[in-house]
Amino acid sequence: MSREAVALTLSELARQVDGDIVRGEPSFVIEGIASLDEATATELSFLGNERYRQQFLKTRAGAVIVPKGVEDGPEGVALVAAENPSYAFGAAVKHFTAAHARQFEPGVDPRAVIHETAKLNRDKVRIHAGAVVMAGAVIGDGTEIGPNAVVGEQVKIGVDCHVHALVSIRERCVLGDRVIIQPGAVIGSDGFGYETVNGSHVKIDQIGIVVLDDDVEVGANTTIDRARFGRTAIGAGTKIDNLVQIAHNVQLGPHNLIVSQSGIAGSAKTGKYVVLAAQAGIGGHVTIGDQAVFAGRSGATADMEGGQTYGGYPAQPHMDEQRQKAALRKLPDLIKRVKRLEKG
């Protein structure tokens, strides 16, 4: 990939990423991108996390984007300082991969099935082979529907969306603009609702919808259930990782980050900028405040205030959880001491 990319000088790189050249010749030419441990003398890498400092000190990269304040590095390696090295490196990646980026080419593959009542401009959308667009669906300009994806009856999809292969969007669900749905995701499947009557589990109809606001991204094989009534809503700018389960009537605020294998139970609500690390969970009918952060495998079983980091199960403030863990590590020695005292 890197050998086909358009080269950058160090000074051009600094301008693109809004960084400062700390060390190196402005005319030095960068030909590609790679990780710290794989980069060669003509490639660019970045230091975005202190845990990779040893890789940084041993790197053979030609140039590295580093945090502000870092002025020393491996001999012969050019350094460009940026406020956010990871974000800056992402900008460089876009430059070097531009030739391979997705190119939107409008058109409807003849092997797609589009109901006559669906509303779309065939000259301004792209529909791939095997895709099904059902009755009454509306698809905005610039939107791409991938192979074998299913857009259900009366679904509304905004402009410049990308629905990847094998996605299912069930009836009446609504997607805003610039929404990305990764392969295999299911939007609007039935919520898990049953009542036990005379010894049998009787299904409760789920007649609501799912609404994804602008700039939402949904990861591969993630499922977002339709509401029992009303709507399951995902706020603008929220990013959801692969293999996440979001149950019926959940209300996620804007700009949440929901990481892989997390689960959010029915009717839970989150504020803005909430973060759930991998395998974290929120219980049913629980409300989470703005900017709350949940560590991996933590679980919120009650309403939680915003602006704090939580861990453990049941979730509690991170420092409290760490103190409890530290105390538990001392427990075996404490038990031994008690036994010795009991023996006299």
TrEMBL record:
Catalysed reactions, semicolon-separated: a UDP-3-O-[(3R)-3-hydroxyacyl]-alpha-D-glucosamine + a (3R)-hydroxyacyl-[ACP] = a UDP-2-N,3-O-bis[(3R)-3-hydroxyacyl]-alpha-D-glucosamine + holo-[ACP] + H(+)
UniProt keyword annotation of Iron present: no
Pathway given in the UniProt record: Bacterial outer membrane biogenesis; LPS lipid A biosynthesis
Keyword terms, alphabetized: Acyltransferase, Lipid A biosynthesis, Lipid biosynthesis, Lipid metabolism, Repeat, Transferase
Domain UDP-3-O-[3-hydroxymyristoyl] glucosamine N-acyltransferase non-repeat region: from-to ranges: 28-94
PANTHER family named in the record: UDP-3-O-ACYLGLUCOSAMINE N-ACYLTRANSFERASE, UDP-3-O-ACYLGLUCOSAMINE N-ACYLTRANSFERASE 1, MITOCHONDRIAL-RELATED
Family note: Belongs to the transferase hexapeptide repeat family. LpxD subfamily.
Protein's name according to its UniProt entry: UDP-3-O-acylglucosamine N-acyltransferase
Species of the source: Haloferula helveola
Gene that this sequence comes from: lpxD
